[in-house]
Amino acid sequence: MLESLKAATFEVLETMFFIFPEHLEESADLFHGPGLRAWVPVEGPKKFRVGLTVPLPLAREMAANFLGLEKDEVPPDKLEDVLKETANMVAGSFLSQEKVPEAFYLKPPQAQHLDLDDQDWQDNAHHLLLAVDDAGLEVFMEKTK
Amino acid sequence: MAYNVLIVDDSATMRALIRKVLKISGLELGECFEGANGREALEILENHWVDLVLSDLHMPVMDGADLVKALRENHMWQTIPVVLITTEGRQDVLAPFFEKGIQGYIRKPFRPEDIKEKLQNILGEAWVPDARELEGCDF
Q1: How far apart are CA A12 and CA A66, in angstroms?
Q2: Residues of B in contact with A92 (CB under 8 A)
Q3: How big is the CA angle at A106 (ends B25 and B80), to the nearest 5 degrees?
C-alpha cells in the first residue's frame, strides 16, 4: 500500500510541480522549523486520511512551481491552497492505483501549520519520508475515527 | 468562433491554473467564468452564454455529479459539452458519467498537453490549427 502511495506522490509532484523527490533511507533531519500539513479525509466503509507534511520553504517552492511565480511572489494564503490541492491529487491517485471500491470517497482537504521540531519523524508503516533537495517531505496515510 | 468557458472547482488555485493552461492552449477563448461549486456554476449559466464546462467532481455545496444532472435536465443547457477535471481516476466511478452525457474527463494530475488534447478531440474544428505549442511554455 505504501508503494501505491509513493507512486501517487511521485506522479503528482513530477507532473504538476516539476519536483523529483528521493526516498529517505534514514529519518528525519530534514524536517525542521515551521511546516505545513495538508490531508484529505477518505470516508466509506472505513475512514482514513491521506496527506503530506512539508517545511514552509518547500511549500513555497511547490506553490511557486504550481502557479508559475517566483518564490517571493507567492501570496501566503496560496501555500495552504496549493498543498491541499496536492493532497487531494495524491489521495485521488492513490485510490485509483489501489483500485479502492467506489464506496470510498474523498472529503474536502484540510490544512494546518505546525512546528516540525515537535513531531516524531521515525520511520513507520504509516508514512513515507522523502527528500526534495535539502527539505523533507512526509506522505502519510492513517486510520481515523 | 471564440468559446466561453466555465471552470468549476472549489480550489481557486486550481481554477487559476486551468485558466492559465487554456490561455496558452490554442483554444480561441472568449469569456472565462469561474464557479466554486455546482450551484455557483448554475447561477453563472442563468446569466451568461457558456460553450464549454470544465468541472471538478468532488466539491462542497453542489458536486460535479449534481451539476451534470442539472445541465442534462435543462433544455437550455443539455447540449453544452462537459469535461470533468478530477482527481478521481476509478473507472467504475467515472463510467456512469458518460451515460449521463459528459464528453470526457481529465485526471489530475494533468499535463497542459492533456487539456489541449482532450479539448481538441471534443471541439474538433473549432481549434485554432496553428496554435502556440505548449512544449517549452513557461507558466
Answers
A1: 11
A2: 86-89, 107-108
A3: 40
What does the DSSP 8-state code read for residue B80?
Answer: S
CA distance A71 to chain B (A): 14
pLDDT confidence of residue A28 = 65
pTM, two decimals, is 0.86
Cβ–Cβ < 8 Å for A110, A86: no
Q: Give domain status of residue B133, yes or no.
A: no
Query: DSSP class of residue A129?
Result: E
Nearest to B92 among A93, A102, A105 (CB): A102
Distance of alpha carbon B126 from alpha carbon B130, whole angstroms:
12
CATH number, domain containing residue A60: 3.40.1550.10
Interface check A68 vs B, CB under 8 A: yes
Domain containing B30 — which CATH number? Answer: 3.40.50.2300
**Amino acid B70: pLDDT:** 96
How far does the CA of residue B127 sit from the closest CA of chain A (Å)? Answer: 25
- The predicted complex's ipTM stands at 0.80
| pLDDT score of B117 | 86
Taking the C-alpha atoms of residue A53 and residue A44, their distance in angstroms, rounded to an integer, is 24
